[in-house]
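[#protein-structures] MJ: dropping RND superfamily putative drug exporter here for a structure pass
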Amino acid sequence: MAFRALTRRRTWFTLLLTIVAATAVLMVEPPEPDPFQVGVAHLPDSYSSVRAERLLRELPSARVRPAIVVVSRADGAALTPADRAALDGRLPTLRRFAAGGQVAAPRFAPDGTVALVAVPLPAADQDKTTERVVALRAALAGKLPAGVRAQVTGAPAFATDLSKMFDGADTTLLLTTLLVVALLLLVTYRSPILWAVPLLVVAVTEQVALHVVRHVLPRLELTPDGATFAITSVLVFGAATDYALLLIARYREELLHEQDRFAAMSTALRQTGPAILASGGTIFVALLSLLLATAEGTRALGVACAIGVVLAVVTALFVLPAAIVLCGRGVFWPFVPRVGGVASVGRVWGRMGDAVARRPRLVAAASVVLLAGLAAGTLGLQVGLSQSEQFRDKPEAVLGAEALARAFPAGATQPVAVLTAPAAAERVVQAAEAVPNVAGAEVAERTATLARVSVVLKPEPGTDAADRAIRDLRTAVAALPDAKAEVGGEIVAGLDILDAYGRDTALILPIILVLVGLVLVVLLRGVLAPVLLVVTVGVSFLASLGASNLLFRHVLDYPALDPGVVLVAFVLMVALGVDYNIFLVTRAKEDAAHLGTRAGMLNALRVTGGVITSAGILLAAVFAVLGVIPVIIAGQIGVIVGIGVLLDTLLVRTVLVPALALILGSRFWWPGREPSAAGRARPAIPADAGER
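AK: finished. structure tokens for RND superfamily putative drug exporter:
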């Protein structure tokens, strides 16, 4: 791609146009989306839970969502007669929140330690449900005898606690990310001025990207889940800052040869532009592959992140160059590059390249063994979290469910709904009660055309035992003639989502690898190098997943991975991980034209080592910021991607890829030939050039 030469007029025009466009985007209010639901993963009609949900809407009970009030003593003792009388005295208060003003009498556990009151809240969007749950909790707080606690749980309470955890999370995430990026840029550039320019440009890009996403997703009828905007924000910050580091490093290098800073930036753009475009294109293609996902939340994440990456690339190629070049050479103070000066390349990367060059086969073998050892950590990997395991800190809904599970079946908070023909309802009850791990079943509702059988499971919703019970229940009711039974409910939908993620992972992962490989083939005009780069990034992902699994199990005490983590982390890891290989190999190909493959690769490692390592550390730190989000899925994605990026930066790109290139020599570019000299030749930067 040809980039037009920069001029003072053109750069000012670019900045002014950017300011006007960004202001216009931020001033336009996005359309009202569908009622926001945390954790939404809308599925197609091929899933039984979706068909059951449609049938449930035909019943009168569809207009309510039961919240469960769990009353128990803090010391675990049985409720006293005075405690029970106090609970009866609160029933009029509970009726004020119930649809129709009716609340069933309390149910007491056989041992008398726990009482359960179901409060049917009117069905509404998440905001109104949250208001009712909060008000219900406030009405119960401090209204029972000392030592007696009332905890609100059930599906509305879980959704409320999950949504409340995201209140203010966007602001916390933004401020933490800004602080981390600012600190790392300051350390990287050692300049009191330079760090502020890319940070300001990237921060504006991130805000514009999120605003555009809020405009686009509702128009595409895509509903985001709770982590969509957080992941998009982190991705934009990471990718845009990486591109800034690459561009500014090359611009600084060109200033050592060009007196005219506009000409120097034009040359830097011509040299780094293809790599940035290839990087952005790789990430864009990988993210759009998420449109093949079954879950709507995953498709929304793919579109949101793809929009963010496009804006990050546009910023890196047009806005940032204009902002940097207009600041003059003084923006690098106190290390201002002068024509004829020495390049800021440290000895470390030259020595690293020399060490790899001495014994490339041994280095490559050792790297593969290390990656394989880390990948072995995936053995015994568990996928699927119960409802209570999705939170880092237990909210009231989890505490209430745990108290309930100590005296009632754990599944009592969210019964399974079996929709069937009225004439078959009793047979469905009998079949359900014969299923292992079913605590009980009853006909809860019946109309002229439809009956709902409520099935309570013994295990906690979301556990392996509960999932097996649901599958067995489906098999049992499907065998009943003329029942036409559909099994649904929120915990059944969770199982279907788990199955959908498994299907999506098996389908999308190989497609992403093929698409990324094709992008690399076009960029490098070869086959062998792209195949090797894709394989190294894939192995790096397995290593990061294995290392993360060991960390989750033995340090952070996470019982399993969230179902959506593997797919999302893989997409981000492969797309971002291949970036550093693109930055290295495109520079190696450029230098090979006048130095040969061996010397070209070593020189590329030498001159890109500092900037790529800085970019990798920064990107890993930015993804680690996802840990401020108080749900496990965000932290798990951040850890896996962060470890993977560090492996790519410090091992794969620094050691393994150069070793493979040195072993293969000119065959590395097969079926193409070793790049021939073209354009102006530039001598290799000395390995012992000191840092400035």
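MJ: nice. The longest strand covers residues 64-73.
AK: one more thing. The chain has a mean pLDDT of 84.
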